Amino acid sequence: MLKLSRFAAVAVLALMLSSCGLFAPQTVWIDVRSVDEYAEDHIANTENIPHTEIAARISDLDLDKSTPIKVFCRSGVRAGLALTALEELGYTNVENVGGIADAREIFNN
């Protein structure tokens, strides 16, 4: 009979859960508007990294390159620039959800 250490058993269980989608990584929401825009109005529990700083500051979040990331701004234009910058850095699961109103609708559902 195969005997697993407690650590190995937990690792096997985590692997099984992740393959079933039960242990999926949490989506990270990033508001790429300016600091002033974010201070004026924002969605709770979202990060604020202005699109001009996204390439330099994304590593501060210590994310795996496959982590689901949703970016948004006022209209979707800056989010598109942020998406391109993140993809160029190797992030593979980034989505531009458009403007803050669009993000609010998706985030709250």
Tell me what the structure shows.
By secondary structure, the protein is an alpha/beta fold. It has a single domain, classed as Oxidized Rhodanese, domain 1 (3-Layer(aba) Sandwich). 40% of the residues lie in helices and 16% in strands. It has helices spanning 6-19, 35-40, 54-57, 77-88, 100-107, and strands at 28-31, 47-48, 69-73, 94-99. A four-stranded parallel sheet has the order 2-1-3-4, with helices on both faces. Strand 3, helix 4 and strand 4 form a beta-alpha-beta unit. The longest helix has 14 residues, at 6-19. It is globular. The mean pLDDT is 88.
Using brief descriptors, characterize the structure shown.
four-stranded parallel beta sheet, single chain, Oxidized Rhodanese, domain 1, 5 helices, 109 residues, alpha/beta
Give the helix/strand layout.
Blueprint: H1 6-19, E1 28-31, H2 35-40, E2 47-48, H3 54-57, E3 69-73, H4 77-88, E4 94-99, H5 100-107
Parallel strand pairs: 1-2, 1-3, 3-4
Offer a concise description of the structure.
The chain contains 5 helices and 4 strands; from the N terminus they run αβαβαβαβα. With 109 residues, the chain is of the alpha/beta class.
Q: Give the mean pLDDT.
A: 88
Low-confidence stretches: none
CATH architecture classification name: 3-Layer(aba) Sandwich
CATH evolutionary superfamily: Rhodanese-like domain
Compute the number of helices: 5
CATH class: Alpha Beta
Count of the domains: 1
Secondary-structure element order, N to C: HEHEHEHEH
Overall body shape: globular
Percent range for helical residues?
40-55%
The fraction of residues assigned to DSSP E strands is: 15-25%
Q: Structural class of the helix and strand makeup?
A: alpha/beta
Distance between the termini: 47 Å
- Main β-sheet, in a few words? 4 strands, parallel
Question: How big is the Rg?
Answer: 17 Å
By CATH, the topology is Oxidized Rhodanese, domain 1
Number of strands: 4
Strand order of the largest sheet: 2-1-3-4
